[in-house]
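Risk register update: the risk of archive-format incompatibility is retired. Evidence:
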Amino acid sequence: MKQIKIMKAEDNPSSFKLVFALGLAGFLSGIAIIGIYELTLPTITAYKAKMLQEAVFKVLPNTTQIKKLQYIDGELKTPTKKSTNENIIYAGYDAENNFIGYAIPAEGPGFQDTISILYGYDFTNKLIVGMEVLDSRETPGLGDKIYKDADFQKNFVALQVETPVILVKKGKKTAANQVDSITGATISSKAIVNIINHSNKKWVERFSHLEVKD
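Archived output:
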């Protein structure tokens, strides 16, 4: 005949012990995550800086030198260590120190999430001369064509921005301020155009009366 063991109340772990154990586990996990983050942060920061620099060279052809600038009190100045990351742009120069144009970071909502881009602005001719997607989580195979589709990238080699940029159906581009959309990814294509228009509305006005200052 089997014996049935009756569990006493004191044999069960108390609620306090359970809560304490869970809390301790959560605390230790949090410490581990923070530690890993602190250890990897310099590497991540350096990688992002390297990718940004490479993007500046791509969107401003013939650039060999870069100067980081910030819009402060109505002027473009070299930011200090205490400066925020707001209103930052990059001036590009060639090997002879001739000014080429500005590389302008911009971002806005896409189909899935925020899209971050960098585009080159030819100050003399009032043209966008290159565009690079810095960060995007658009749908693989569709929305990600904003940085994978070579034909779409060609829209930004000499894009006129004195008037707002207009998105048209692929193959229907007839004007210098128009962009051919990507078949199957119209929303993502439109997002890029919206980001550029929103950014240009701010920066072109500033450029009309600003000079580069140290």
